[in-house]
Design brief:
Number of strands: 0
Order of helices and strands: HHHHH
Radius of gyration: 13 Å
Strand content: under 5%
Distance between the termini: 16 Å
Shape: globular
Low-confidence stretches: 1-18
Number of helices: 5
Largest sheet: none
Structural class: mainly alpha
C-alpha cells in the first residue's frame, strides 16, 4: 500500500498547466523512463528505480518541468547513442518529439 501511495504522489503534476515545453509528456514520466533505461528494467518498484525517480523529482522541483525533461531526454539520447539502440537516430534524438520510453509513450506507468 505504501508503494502505491508513493507512486501516486510521484505522478502528481509538477508544473502549472500554462507551462509550455517543446518536449511533450509529463516530466515525472520522463524521469521514470530515464531510470528504466539506466537500470535496464521496466519495474517501477525496483529499489534503484525508486531512488533514481526520487532524484528526478528533486531535479524537477529544482529546475522546473521543461528543463528537467530536457535533462532526462538528453540522458536517454546519450544512452541510446552509447548502446547504438536500433530505431533511435543519434543525430535527431534530441530534436525529435518522439517519446523514448514506455511511460511517456503510454502516458503513465
Amino acid at each position: 500500500m505504501k508503494v502505491f501511495a508513493f507512486i501516486l504522489l510521484l505522478l502528481a503534476p509538477f508544473s502549472s498547466p500554462a507551462e509550455e515545453c517543446e518536449i511533450s509528456g509529463k516530466a515525472i514520466l520522463w524521469g521514470y523512463d530515464v531510470c528504466f533505461w539506466e537500470y535496464e528494467t521496466d519495474d517501477s518498484i525496483h529499489p534503484s528505480v525508486i531512488d533514481c525517480v526520487e532524484e528526478g523529482q528533486e531535479l524537477i522541483e529544482r529546475v522546473g518541468s521543461c528543463e528537467a525533461k530536457h535533462t532526462f531526454k538528453s540522458r536517454i539520447c546519450d544512452m541510446a547513442r552509447e548502446w547504438k539502440t536500433e530505431g533511435i537516430d543519434p543525430e535527431t534524438c534530441i530534436s525529435s518529439d518522439m517519446p523514448l520510453g514506455p511511460s511517456v509513450r503510454e502516458g503513465g506507468i
